[in-house]
Each structure stands twice: as C-alpha cells, then as structure tokens.
Design goal:
Layout: H1 26-42, H2 46-52, E1 57-66, E2 73-82, E3 90-96, H3 102-118, E4 124-130, H4 139-153, E5 162-166, H5 172-186, H6 210-226, E6 234-238, H7 242-253, E7 257-262, E8 267-269, H8 276-286, E9 296-298, H9 300-304, E10 310-313, E11 332-334, H10 343-351, E12 355-357, H11 359-362, H12 365-379, H13 385-410, H14 414-433
Parallel strand pairs: 3-4, 3-5, 6-7, 6-10, 10-11, 11-12
Antiparallel strand pairs: 1-2, 2-4, 7-8, 8-9
Helix pairs in contact: 1-3, 1-14, 3-14, 4-5, 6-7, 6-12, 6-13, 12-13, 13-14
The chain binds nicotinamide-adenine-dinucleotide.
Nicotinamide-adenine-dinucleotide (NAD) binds next to helix 7.
Length: about 425
C-alpha cells in the first residue's frame, strides 16, 4: 500500500509542530565544542570526558495547555535536563521561548555544571524549558502552563534533587506558581524547591538583581586589571530584561555612561549617555523600547558594533559570530547572556586583544544568590541584603582571580581558563566517587 500523502485529501494535518531533531542544536554544538577544546588543553581523562559530553538525565514532556478561548487546547513541549548528578542536587533555570529544544536546554545545563563548579557551589548543572512565546500569552494562560509543566516534571525536581530558578521569559511569579504547585502535591509549603521566588514566599533579598550586580562586580575587577577608569568609560548593553536592565543601572551608578541599550523591538543609541530613569518610565508605559525619543533608533546588529569600552550582551545566544566579530569595538566583552559568542568569534576576539568575561563567570551571580536562597530556606533563616551582596562579592572576586591567574599562567583565554577551573573540580569529584557498580 502506498504511504504517499494524498494532497487532495480533506484530512487535517496536526497543528502541533513536531520536534524533528531534538539534539541537533547550534547551542549544544557550541557547549560541546568549548568543553572538548578545554578538555584537550587540560589533558582530561578520556573516560571522564565522554561521561560529561551528554547530560545524565533528560525528560521531554508534551502536555495540553488550555488557552483563554475555552475551545482551544494547545499541545506544548517542555524539557528538564540534569547534566551532572555527582556534585549534589542539580540547579538551573527554566526558560520560556519559542525556539527552545532539547539541545538548547542540554547546552544550558552543561554550562550550569561548569558555572557551579567554578563558584564552588555544591550543585551539578540542570536546565528546563518550555517551547512557547510567553509574550503572546495572557497571565492566566501562563499560570496554567506553569502549573501543568511543574506537574509533568515533578518526579525530577525537589529541594534535595533539582532546584529550578528563573531564566529568559520566566520570573519570580513563575517561581511562585511552581512552588505552589509542588507544595500542593505534598500538602505543605516547600519554598526550597525553587529559587528566585518573591521575598515574601522565602525568596532571597538581592536575587532578582543578582545576575546584573554580579556582572558589574566582575566588570569592575576587569577594568582594574586593564587600567580602565570606569567613571570615564562607556557601555552598551544588549537586552534590557532582568540581567541587562540591572547591569545597566549598576554600571551607571559607577559613573559609566550607557550609550546603547536594546530589547527585542530595537536598539537605542545616544552618544551622550541615556537617561535610564526616563527609559524605565517609557518602558513601563509602552512595554518595549521602540519609539523612545531621547535616542537614535538602531537595530540590534548595529548596537553590537557601537564604539564603547564595555559591551554586555545580556539577551540571547549566538549574537557575536565570525560575521560581526571583526567590527566589535569594545575593550571588555562582559557576557551576561549564556552562549552569546560563537567558537569562531571567540578566537577572533582573543586575537584582537578584547578581554572576554565568559558567561560561566560573568553571569554566575544569579546562581550564586540562588544558592544563598536555598541555604536560607533550608535553615529557615533570612539574611540581609548587605550580607547577600558581601558574600556574592567575595565568591565572584575569588573566582575571577583564580580564572585570571590560570589564564596568565597557562597562556590561555579567560573562557578556557574558567571552563578548566570548573571541569577539573567535577572531574576530581567523579574520580573520587568511582564507577557504580
Ligand atoms: P529576560 O527575559 O528578563 O530579558 C531578555 C531581554 O532580551 C529582553 O529585554 C528582551 O526583549 C531581549 N531580547 C529577546 N530577544 C532579543 C533579540 N532577538 N535581540 C535583542 N534583544 C532580545 O531574560 P533574562 O533573565 O534577563 O536572561 C537574559 C540572558 O541572561 C539569557 O541568556 C539567560 O540565560 C541569561 N541568564 C539569566 C539569569 C537570570 O538570573 N535571569 C542568570 C544567568 C544567565
């Protein structure tokens, strides 16, 4: 019998977009290539190398989400990936984005492993994601989606197993719904199942702004190392969301002039420095940066090529590639986003003498304060904002200098040095635990 599709047939094709090549992702390719390159430079044991190339556990779920129009039920795909279970519970954010697939989530989970190990946190890496465009969804739709996704992955998560947090497209409210759904299943409140919660539900002071704050602590160390005076410096920040907006504000507090920012709608350029209070007021009223008048409107590609001392990509992956790397004009590339720089671009930036604060170091402030939140929850004790920021500063500065020393001693770039710092700790733990059975 012929299996060809009869195009004249009235039979409707499914509306669901079928995920064809889940592992086939540019981001996983990038994460694995970075890992393999670091593994080769450090002479990593081949058995350990092969164990770390793919995640230990992955879960793909598909589930129904009832939309506000009552007759409409969408089938949605979600993921949770645990890369390494050797170090303690796993930890990593949940991303809502229309392009999420297994490969992307696996890449993000792998970076989480190196990041936690570099910071000396007692976690392995994990990540989650749901393939939806949250900007097209109402609040009730997002709540139903979040609760059902939480139910679907609830066998994998838990305070001693795997602790989610916010990432792109999710926020403290999303974490509150996850915490509530998980707690309802168990019959009592379990705040420590997620971090990045609202403070009133056991969230930590300083968590919301921790990634941006941490990035700026590290920019300060980098500037000191390079002899750049921050109160005379200029910065461009791509992505004005959780990470980018806070980073821009903290840089501004240090006297840095913010000459460019962007979001998904457009980029803004003002060579005299943007007034961030006015930008925030505009954003509050209009939802996106587009139309803001005290700046020239440019696109995101033009934004990345602006003249500046500090360029902070804080939006999404694969922004600096071999195509635009020759035109990047900053002195410090401070990666707030995960995976913003391609492998080819990395080499070109190093050759051009641009100092790169790699993502596993640059945006580690978020998971560090998430760790503080988990510790406070398990001890049922709350720290002040000053305590949180002091501890964050110590941990980040320590990791920065360990990375810088390794980079200078071994003649390798900062990304490779940061990865080797993380990988060697995981490798040591794996060897000590041995092979079961
Ligand atoms: P977010 O959703 O709060 O903000 C993302 C920003 O990027 C928004 O301003 C959005 O408009 C903009 N954006 C989206 N698509 C864009 C495009 N194509 N071009 C330009 N701008 C675009 O997300 P976030 O939490 O700030 O995360 C941003 C990045 O930082 C991600 O790579 C994420 O993995 C990473 N990160 C976040 C955290 C955290 O604590 N939130 C921690 C570590 C790393």
């Amino acid at each position: 019998m012929s299996e060809e599709i009869d195009e004249s047939s009235d039979e409707k094709l499914p509306a669901v977009e079928l995920p064809k090549a889940e592992w086939d992702s540019a981001m996983l390719n990038l994460a694995q290539s970075q890992f393999l390159s670091a593994a080769q430079k450090m002479g990593l044991d081949e058995n350990i190398r092969d164990r770390l190339l793919f995640p230990q556990r992955t879960m793909i779920v598909s589930f129904p989400c009832r939309m506000d129009e009552y007759s409409e039920v969408e089938t949605v795909f979600g993921y949770r990936v645990q890369h390494v279970l050797t170090m303690g519970p796993t930890k990593g954010g949940i991303r809502y984005h229309e392009d999420v697939n297994l490969g992307e989530v696996a890449a993000l989970a792998m970076w989480m492993t190196w990041k936690c190990a570099l910071m000396h946190l007692p976690f392995g890496g994990a990540k989650g994601g749901v393939r939806v465009d949250p900007r097209q969804m109402s609040r009730p739709e997002l709540q139903r989606l979040t609760r059902r996704y939480t139910m679907e992955i609830s066998s994998m998560i838990g305070p001693d197993k795997d602790i989610p947090a916010p990432d792109m497209g999710t926020n403290a409210q999303t974490m509150a719904w996850i915490m509530d759904t998980y707690s309802q299943q168990h019959g009592y409140a379990i705040p420590e199942v997620v971090t990045g919660k609202p403070v009133v539900l056991g969230g930590s002071h300083g968590r919301e702004e921790a990634t941006g704050r941490g990035l700026v602590y590290l920019i300060r160390e980098s500037a000191e190392h390079l002899g750049i005076e921050l109160n005379k410096a200029t910065a461009v920040v791509q992505g004005y969301g959780n990470v980018g907006r806070h980073a821009a504000h903290f840089l501004h507090e240090l006297g840095v002039s913010i000459v460019g920012i962007s979001d998904v709608s457009c980029g803004l350029h003002n060579s005299n420095g943007l007034n961030l209070q006015n930008v925030d007021a505009w954003l509050e009223q209009n939802g996106t940066l587009q139309g803001y008048i005290e700046a020239d409107e440019i696109n995101n590609q033009e934004l990345l090529e602006l003249e500046c001392d500090i360029l902070a990509p804080c939006a999404l992956q694969n922004q600096i590639t071999e195509t635009n790397a020759p035109y990047i004009k900053c002195k410090i590339l401070a990666e707030g986003a995960n995976g913003p720089t391609s492998l080819e671009a990395d080499g070109m930036l190093t050759e051009r003498g641009i100092f790169v604060l790699p993502d596993v170091l640059g945006n580690a402030g978020g998971v560090t304060v998430s760790y503080f939140e988990w510790v406070q929850n398990t001890q049922e004790f709350s720290w002040t904002l000053e305590e949180v920021n002091d501890r964050l500063h110590k941990i980040l500065v320590n990791a920065f200098h360990r990375t810088l020393v390794r980079s200078q001693r071994d003649g390798i770039d900062m990304r490779t040095a940061a990865l080797i710092e993380g990988i060697s700790r995981v490798a040591e733990a794996k060897l000590l635990r041995g092979v079961f059975p």
